[in-house]
Please model this.
Amino acid sequence: MHYKEMADILFPNLLHSAEYYINKYKSRQLAPNAVVTRFAPSPTGFMHIGNFFQAFISFNLAKNTNGILFLRIEDTDEKRKIDEAKAVIYEVLDKFGIKFDEYQTLDGVDIGNYGPYVQSQRLDIYKAFAKKLVEEGKAFPCFCKKTEGKADVLKQRETKFLSDDEKEYDPCRNLTFEEVKKHLDAGDSFAIRLKTKNIGTERIKFYDLIKGELEAKANAKDFVIIKSDGVPPYAFAHAIDDTLMGTTIAVRGEEYISSTPAHLELFDALGFTPIKYCHNPLICKIDNNGKKRKISKRYDPEANMLYYFEKGYPVESVLEYLLNIINSGFEKWRKDNPNLPWSEFKFGINDITAVSPIFDLVKLNDISKNIIAKMNDVELYINWLNYAKKYDFELAEKLIKDKEKFISVCKMDRVGVDKPRKDIYNYSMMKEYFDYMFTSPQKYEISNDEKSKANEFVTNYLIDFKIPTSNEDWFNSVKMLAEKLGYATDNKAYKQNPEKYKGNVAKACEFVRLAITGHKNSPQLYAIMKILGEKESKQRIMNFIDFTK
Model:
């Protein structure tokens, strides 16, 4: 067989050979144990949390070993590629602080010596290696037309399988040089397929850095390595790219485990040493039927990484939550080191969970509450304002106009208390949470049964109303009035004989709180009235009296 001649007529205009690229991309000089890894997203839509999960693992593996992390954009799927998606990928990675040692900028400049870092700009490299495989008799051109539907596929497969080894042969695998030339002269398009050496009954064992030794069915198909449009599928492109770019560990989802034997077959055919795989578990959710499923962009808004920006979660909240599900040891580390940044937590490959984690929004919110509670008033105000500038321009204008007022609002949970309230877990909820600081209440959390008692107490409270000098003075004034009007000042006595009283002091305070905020619960009421001022506070009390008549 004239393999060399066949390769030349299939790829007549290539500038460089496979050997040229092997020599061009020199081996990296690394420190012992340093990891070279990559994040290789496809710009086919929004950034999925599962993809970001891989990026975050890769980032930490490189960072914790003084290694190298590079970004490679895998944009060879023209049908699914979305122009805006690449910018979204860069935006998400930048906002979450995932920094790369090597990448291509959005305006097309390669940073690093192993580019281009975009696969659509590496097509000649893939063709050079495909040509090499054809020259060696390991690959062949396939001129078969695309199948039309499942029935067509099944019909073709009836003639492809041999009963003795279950191997799926491609009809073009043994075309002669003359037959290939005849097809090319006729202008027929072709794909390049790898000649598999396996049989369908074989099992392949391989080692995964997270899951240990694995076994999967061997590839038994002459699969495509260059499509008819000249573009490689993922398997062929990644084997070449990760080898030339010096990748030592590839982090990817466990859905690739079943196709790993085919990928290892490619490494062998190319004469490359296989890279090490780290198949991370998929993030799952429990559906309404109690069944575990992969978190889905179709059903779960939190699968989209932009969701966390739109809701206003602090970056640290999301990253710390992901560390929780990557490594169960993070939670204990955080308790032991409450004030250290998450980046001080170190973990290696052996520390990554092998079990699919269940996404828990409640857990994320709890983590976020703690992070927001630690912010000082100015920091919280700035973060709230930055969120509003992008997602609520009208709110941003109010925050800017009354800057000092809203800095004081952000300080309310921290006035005179050792343990601040932890009701806020993202910035989007702050507008509603502090709605009473923007305008007088339009509705009140009070039942019709309590309106009469509330009206009586607040009417009497208004008579001598003034904002006291401290929270203690305010509480004592409410306590004195409550006792005068028949409310229990001793909670123990109230519990023993509640029918004897109109309520307790807590209920009296609640009525005043309702008048000022409309809510039964709020940050320290004295701090709220002090910010609002005496005139506004008095007007709100009068409004409440009218409402409860």
Notes: The longest strand covers residues 203-208. Confidence is low (pLDDT under 50) at residues 161-165. The CA atoms of residues 494 and 500 lie 8 Å apart. The chain is about 45% helix and 10% strand.
